[in-house]
Amino acid sequence: MSKRILWVSLFAITFAFVEASVVVYLRSLYYPEGFSFPLKIIPPHHLSVELARELSTIIMLVAVGILAGTTRWQKFAYFMVAFGVWDIFYYVWLKTTLDWPSSVSDWDVLFLIPIPWIGPVIAPLAISLLLIGAGVMILRIESAGVAFRPPPIAWVFSLIGTVICLYTFMQDTDASLRQVTPKPYPYWLIGVGVASYLVAIVLSAKEFRKVEQAARE
Predict the structure, then answer these.
(1) Quick check: 138 and 74 in contact, CB under 8 A?
(2) CA distance 60 to 186
(3) What is the dihedral of CA 113, 88, 129, 136, to 10 degrees?
(4) How would you write the pLDDT of the chain (217 residues) with one tens digit per residue?
(5) Is 183 strand, coil or helix?
(6) How far apart are CA 5 and CA 8, in angstroms?
């Protein structure tokens, strides 16, 4: 498991540089004075290429998870690790190549499908850390010979966290679609979303301990 995590992480780190290098070129083309909001309009052809690139990125990360794992949950866990490491190092490489962001409170375009997701860098970084932690937890559980089965309440908290996080990224449509300066980001709300994910992780870990203890008895 450790070797697979290492190789998956290595792929994610190097792939993050490929993604960051594309952004270096895009910003030199559309933001030569430095990236900032309000967003600039991208020609339809370039936009379609960007949408295809982002979709391809997700497919590649999913493919890595499928290849690395054996069970359904292992495949998903490796995807989570790959995505989290990739997202974190994407910003590491942007900082290395462009000296951006200047701080984790800087705003960025996080994703484009179905509409642009925008928010401060700290938000996706926090979620990525949770993805890595949850992925490693699932892999440790499955490597112990126990099938990962999160309790129903953990699913509820995960869904709540997902809805909240997506809302914070896509709720300011004026800034994402109409070239307007973003409204203040609802940090308290993303905090609730992250807390919901943490509760789901803790509940899943407790369920594993119960199953493990019952097996020992």
Answers:
(1) yes
(2) 31
(3) 100
(4) 889 999 999 999 999 999 999 999 999 999 999 999 999 988 999 999 999 999 999 999 999 999 999 999 999 999 999 999 999 999 999 999 999 999 999 999 999 999 999 999 999 999 999 999 999 999 998 888 888 889 999 999 999 999 999 999 999 999 999 999 999 999 999 999 999 999 999 999 887 776 556 555 5
(5) coil
(6) 5
